[in-house]
Amino acid sequence: MGKFFYSSAASLDGYVEDPEGDFSWAAPDEQVHRHANDRTEESGLVIMGRRLYETMEPFWSEAAADPTGSEHVDEFPRIWVRKPKLVFSRTLGSVPEPFGLIRELDPEWAAELRDKVEGTITVGGASLASAFAAAGLIDEVELITVPFVAGGGKPFFGPGFRGRRLEPLETRRFDGGSVAARYAVS
Fold first, then answer.
1. pLDDT tens for each residue of 136-153
2. Mind listing the domains of the chain with CATH numbers?
3. According to DSSP H, which parts of 43-184 are helical?
């Protein structure tokens, strides 16, 4: 049985992007990148919102075709391209294979998906994760705090997480100052 897992880097004050929509300050160092590679490898399915899809897909598809020569960076697109992926969007007309396109979040469908997928079902994008949380579907979160203060922007925890209790599962400190904290959501 799978579990819905939301993970993202965020500023110390809890934002995944700053007020201008920038998140370049969250670029991972080698340790954090390897950690993200491991988490993505554990994923049986990746589900993402439209904005994350439009950011991730072109970048990682190009990186898979044109390696950088950096082992930890080049490992991610090799993992990424072979993972099954779904995009939630009401505005996209279509997505290329191997992506699937979903228009609405149906909690019954999601519960069935949890039963079918082995490993984690990674939910990417703060807004989508908030919608999944509002439907009671997020099982675990991992907040990777970056030593940076954004001063506002898009929060890691959207309104769908309001009132949720988090049970600590694991904490890891990285040499560059980032900290990964994983929690069960109840």
1. 999 999 999 999 999 999
2. 3-185 (3.40.430.10)
3. 50-65, 71-82, 107-116, 126-134
